[in-house]
Structure formats: structure tokens, C-alpha cells
Amino acid sequence: MTAEVKMVNMKIDGRDVTVPADWTVIRAAHKNDIDIPHYCYHPDLSIAGNCRICMVSVKGAPRPVVGCATPVAEGMEVTTTAAAEVEARKSVMEFLLINHPLDCPECDQAGECKLQDYSVDHGRDHGRFHEEKVRKSKSTMGPHVKYWGSRCILCTRCVRFTDEVSGTGELGIIYRGDRNEIATFPGRVLDNPLSMNTVDICPVGALVSSDFLFQSRVWNLHSNPSICPGCSLGCNTRVDLDAKDQIKRIVPRRNDAVNKEWMCDSGRLNFGYVHAGRLQKPKLGGADATWKEARRAALELLALNGGANTVALISAWNTSEAMAAILDLVAVESPAARIFGYGNPVVADQVFPGFTIYGDKNPNRAGMEQVLGIADPAASLKALASETGSIGTLLLVHNIPDFVITPEFKAVLDRSENVVLLDFASGELLRYGNVAVALPTLTSFEKAGTFVNNAGLAQSFEPVMEPATYGLSEAEIVEALKRDVGAATRAGAAA
Amino acid sequence: MAETTPPAAPPAPPASEAPKPKPVVPFSPVILKHIHEPNAHTLEHYLARGGYETARKHVGETDPASLVAIVKDSGLRGRGGAGFPTGMKWGFLAKGTGKPAYLAVNGDESEPGTFKDRHILEKDPHQLLEGVILTCWAIQSNHAFIYLRGEFILGYQRLEAAVKEARAKGFIGEKSFGKDFPLKVTVVRGAGAYICGEETGMLSSIEGGRGYPKIKPPFPAVSGLFKCPTIVNNVETIANVTHIVKNGADWHKQWGTEKSPGYKIFCLAGAVKKPGVYEVPLGITMREFIDVYGGGMVEGRTLKAVIPGGLSAPLLTPEMVDKCTLDYESLAGLGSMLGSGGITVLHDGVDMMSAIYNTMRFYHHESCGQCTPCREGTGWLEKLAHKHHAGHAHAGDTDLLADVAKNMRGRTICVLADAAAMPMQSYLQLFRPEFDKRVAAPEYVEKGRTARDEITPAAKRESVTHGAPGVLDVGMGMDRV
Predict the structure, then answer these.
(1) Among B172, B191, B182, B205, which residue's Cα sits nearest to residue B104?
(2) How many C-beta atoms lie closer than 10 Å to residue A176's C-beta?
(3) Is this prediction's ipTM beyond 0.85?
(4) pTM of the entire structure?
(5) pLDDT for residue B215 is more than 70
(6) How many alpha carbons lie under 13 Å from residue B326 in its C-beta half-sphere?
(7) Does B475 reach chain A within 8 Å, measured CB to CB?
């Protein structure tokens, strides 16, 4: 990093800027908050230079050039708003729209479409094309992606994505000229685990997500930033919700230190557990109970014998804050208790040329190491499972959606006389007879917290929505429990 | 690139031009000398007329730089269309990159009206191969690709056979001519796309990809085929190399003009008595070429226009034809170009709307679709040209044609958009009344505005009269950038 980068001084729109010598004009401009419109250019993909909208004028050049493919040079003077490039952009905008179906009212992209945006900013005020438009095919590219050929502007971002980032190379261009279409190669399906990124990078409504298709107009959504809990990478996400606070889609948010602008399909699609199968209210012996009753029962179980035979089993899906809160609770209530960790089993990483989907399907294993000192949740669970004899009270802080109960995990449950479960789901675990108390918690979309990713980067997030249940965060639950303890102590002292 | 200097030269020094022995040296065909002889395509025939002697003499013996110097000195200009000096291009080849250098010979010959390389490929392929060997030695390349238009079936068979024969004789192979110079020649066939005749489109095609032209810079000489330094030359250019190396630069310069030395193969088509392929010294007059070589116009027809350098070259009217000589600078001065040397003569009965519609249909069909202005613009031009051809154009459509063509110029990766727009601008400039005659319907008016509202500044709108000089707000010809 300290290797000296040669810098050049240049002027863009009269402003003096200094950028590395190997940059292009568009990158230099964007870095300095000077907007140059672009379709085919994407900072994480190779340069195609085909959309021709990023025209700029370079002093000394006879005509406007494309900013995305023009390297910067010492003393270069670039304008982005002079008549020549404005006129060039206007004509390119017109060309882009002549065969476009202009079907914005039924297009999923409407509202976040670069054609709409740039048409307003750079286009003509009316069309001059009165001929028959070229019509192209519609197709299903893969399980999550559909293609609307007529809307396509052939920027080839999707083709370059499958060539360079996913490395799977399913996509290509077929036919020629204005009949050009994007298609999968014969016998291929766009089914790689990163396929939905092509939907994100499609600047128009040509590639659309079959999961989000016709679900909502985008201007009826509100968005909040979050962190994906799907694996140990912690992709930065933007969660789009409708007016009823239902999650409609999850898309990546740029963070060059983590996920660039990519995200895997399963991370995007794994939000169903937020709205279905939730533990709505506290349960006591299988029946609904009030928070107060449930807390009292939990406290009694945890305090049995000062916690001598109590085990806290915490999953690596919990936030660092939740882990700290549980530590706090245990210290107060059952100081003799032992703490173990567990998590989703680790599978092999899926490595692509430009992205890795990590096999460690736990968002906060590193946080667990920091807070609880448990570096390997699987080994921790194994250690607990290998013990014999019964566990008096198992404080199980779960919060893993779609968890598959392993034999080891089952062995621990079977050995536990009473289980105090903290979980957001009303799932398989609840049906275990020895779950005495179940306290509803919140998903990572509904609470604030921190996940530490596999590179040691602590990423905090805020709730993106109101809680969908009567659940509380672990910290809130622990706080309430401690309040209860205090009240009981005071009552005892008074007596 | 060579257009910057000519305007300064012609008026002042006619005296200095006079002593130059222009047409004095009698010329007989060089490259096409043997194509009429049966079996000229065989190795036997080629060896019998001294074939491969030049290559044998130089490969592994002569300093490659001196070969480049000879070609540079000869003033040979690329015969594919752009007319870039060949020796200079060779000089640009990146050296010391640690990567192999390639020679890619362009035999795609897809410009309509051009059919010269085909004769070399079909009737004298060894002549090309010897040029390839010499060029490879000059640029120190060990692998040459010869890219052929897919439709050249006989040419492919003959060239493949020639490569086999040359390989069997040891002219190419691990040790060419027994010297320590390995040379591989690969013949690649196209699949019938015009765009693969564009040099970087051809390189993409050879690489096995879609024939999309690449962004320049980097130029092929720096990063071309498989991202290695590559020299791309036309078949005719390479065929010239043997003769220039054999006879010397001065021999080549005895014909032609100062800026266009030598001779060139021209393809004559259209309304002449003897259409065909002719090899003539550069600098002869267009009239001489049409009247003497072509035998004049067909009976009962007069000349209406000439397409001088392949379909994309702007037209010449009879007055311009009178002033025109067959060299790069004369045609550039007339706002057109020598191009690939495909000359098409249109007679007085030709419906220009039919001609331009046919032209536009071609470019629409052949646009690769990579860049927006070309992909969309060529189709639009065709549709508007069709309306004029069919006689149901609306008022304003003709101005729209001019504006669309203008908007396509200079805004794409390769020059196909320009190649489509240039003839349209030229037809509009020279034959505007014929366009106007086909306007049958009133102008489109939407919300009180017409398509023209943004074409012509409001102040000028009142004065627009079709066909009047100076009205079109469109730059014409080559000087417009």
C-alpha cells in the first residue's frame, strides 16, 4: 500500500484534482463528486465503453471522448458540461430510447431506472422516432432472474459480471445490431449463487428479480441499512420495506472493505423467517404466558443451586451485545454457570473470481471469540456434548433461522432437565418437552447490534423495522431480569 | 491521420511537382500479373516465376530493421481502407514486452464494392504467403494469422493448400528456410460479419469471441491479439511487401504521387462497359480509369455519381469526378476517400433513394450493436431511408435523417457508425432534391412541436428551404469531426 502511486494533476470542469495516473477520467470525476452519467461503466467491472453516454470533452481532442475509457494525464483539462458533450449525451440518450418500449408503468425498474434519470437530466424533451420499434424476446434466465429484451440497452454489465466476478460465464450476446439480446449460452441457466447481482447492476429494467417482480413499486418502499447475517462476511445491505414494515427485498450496499457491491442470492432471499413462524409471546411449559410470569420462571431455573449445574449455550448468530448481556446476567444470577458456544456447521467456502461466499454460516463467530472467548463454536459444543450427567438448567440463546438440529446438539438438549430458550422462532426447538421457558427475541432486522466479520471488522447495525412480535432484544430481556432480581432482593430485605 | 497536411501542399508548388516523373514510367500489373494464368495458385507455378526467392534471401539473413526501413521508405500505405503508412505502423510495434508479436492479415474484404483480395487469395496465394513470411521476419513475429471472409470458400481452400505446400517445403515451420526462425501460419475463417473486417473486430473474432471491435487505445501494435503486440495488415498490403523488398523502395515510388506512391488494385463496378479488377498506378485520373480501363459508361447512360472507395465513401458528382485522381489526397480533398478501392459507378437512371436505402439496409444489418449510436442509429437511418424510398416520408424526416447521421459521427468505438453516416450525409448534401421529392405527408406535430423544433435553432426555422445552400445545419464531408 505504501508503494508510491504516481499521481497526476488535472482539471475537471475548472477544478484542480489530483488522481492516480492509472485512473480513467470518469473515476477521477466521480472521486471528486463530479457526476458523469454512465450505463456500462461499473467500478468493479472491466471497461466496455459501449453505452457512449459518458462523453466528456478533453482539451485538444477534436471531439468528445468517453470518460470511462480515457486515461487521465498530467495537465489534462476535461469539461463535462460544455455544449459539445451535452449535445453528444443528448443524442446518445435519444438513441437509447428509440427502440425502448417506454413501458415504465409496468416495469419493475421504474423509479430507480437510469434511463428515466438520465432522460430527465440529459435527454430531449420529446421523441422524434415515429417508426416501428424493434421487439425482442422475454425469457427466464434462471431461478431468480428474468429478462425483458426490449428494455435492454446492451451495456453488457451482466455479461461482464458473469465473466469476471462469478466466473461462471453463462451470459452472452446473441444476434447482431439492434436485434442484439442478452441470452444464456445453449444448455446453460443463470443459476450461479451470485446471479441476482446482475439484477442490481442492470441499469434498466431488462434483468429483474423473479422474487421481487410485481411485488411493489419502488417508490412505495422505504429503505434502511443493515448487515446480512447469512455468513461470516457480513455483507452490507439495504433492506427495502413496504408501508406495513414487511421486508420486500434485500440488496447489497457498497462497502469496498467487505462486499464491494455484491451479495449472494441466499443472503438476499433469506428474510422469510422475519415474517413467518415467529415466537409471538413468552411460553411457559408450552402455553402462552405473560412476560412477568415467564421471567420469574426463568430466574428461578437459572438461580437453582447458584447456577452450579447451569449451562449457558450461546449461538454464534447472536450479536456481540447479546452475548455481553448474557454474560452479565450469568455473572449476577448464576455465577457458577459455565458458558459454551455453538453455531451453524461450517461448510466449504464458495470461491468465485471476484467474490467469496463463506462456508462459516455464522455472522458473529469472531464476536463470540472477542466477547466469550470461544474461538471455535463447533468444538465448544462438542466439548459440552461429550460430557455425561444431566444439566440442571440450559440457558439456550439461539436466534438461528432454519437451524438443523445435529446429534450433538440433541444430546445436549436431552441431557438438560430444564431449558430456558431465547429465540425468535417458534420452531422445532420449542417442541422439545424440556423447554420450560421460552422468551421471544428479535431478528437482526429488528434490533440494533454488532457483528464482527471474519476479517475482524466490527459492523454495527440499527433496526430496520419495528419488531414484528412481542419479542425483546437480549439486552432488554436481561435488563428486565436484573430489575426483577433487584426487586426481589429489595422485597427480601424489607421482609 | 494523413489528412492534416494535404491542403497546404497543392496550390503553392506546382513547379516542384512537375519534374516528378509521374506517368512517365510505363506500368504493367505487379500483383495481378499472373492471375490469368492457369495453375497460378500452385507452388510449382509460383516457384517457376522466382517465387520465395526473396524470402529465402532475407529470412534469417537480413537485419529485420532494414526490411522495415525499406517498406517505410517505399511509402506503401495500407490497402485496407484507412491508408495508414505500413512501415510506420510496423515501427509502432511494441518491443521488449516479453510477449510474442503477431501478424494478423486481414482478408475479410467485406466492404461492398470491393473484390480485390479475393483474386490474390484464390489465384495467387503463394504471393501472399511470401509477403507474410517477409513481414513476419521484418517484425520478428513467429505466428501469423490470415483471417478470411467466410464466404471465400475457394480462397480458403487454395490458401490452406498453399500453406500446406509451403510447410512441406520448409518455407514455414520450425525452421523456415532452414534458418533459426520458427514461423507458424494459421488460416482463420470468419462467419460472415462485416464488422470482422474492422481490425480489432477481426482480432476479437480470431480470439474466438464475438467480433466486437475493441477500444483504442491501446492500439493493436501495443496490445492486440490475445493482448499481445500485433500488426494488422490487409492482404493486398502484404502482397506488396515481397515486390517492394525485392525491387526496392525507389522502384515502388516511381509510380504514384508523392503522398500516395506506388500502384493499387481497384475494383470497378456499376454502369461501365468493362467492370472488373484493375491494377493501376496511383494518381491516374478517375476519368481515365472509368473511360479507358472501364471502357466508359454503358451504352445510352451518363454518369450520375461515383462511389469511390467502398460503400461508405461519400459520393462524387460528375464535376468532382472530373477533378479526381486516384490517390489518397485527391479524394480526401474532395471530401471523400480512396478507401478500399472499390469504385462503383452510378448512371443517370439510378434512383438515389433506392441506392441510399440499400446502403442503409446494409449498415443496419451489419452493425455489431456494441455502441449505442450505431446500434440504434443504423436502424433508424434505414427506416427513414425506407420511407423516402417508398415515397411516404413525412416533411421533416429528411432533416431528421441529417441530424441522426450527424449524431452518429465520431461517437462510437469503431468507424462503422461513421461508415453508415458518411454516405447518408453525402447523399443528402448532393441529392437533397431527390429526397424532398419523396416527401408525401405533412410533418409530425405533437403538442404543437415538430421533430424539427430541436434540429434547427428557432431563429433559423423561418428560413428553412429544402435544398437551399447553407441551410442544412450539418457538417459534410471528411473535414467534419
Answers:
(1) B205
(2) 20
(3) yes
(4) 0.90
(5) yes
(6) 31
(7) no
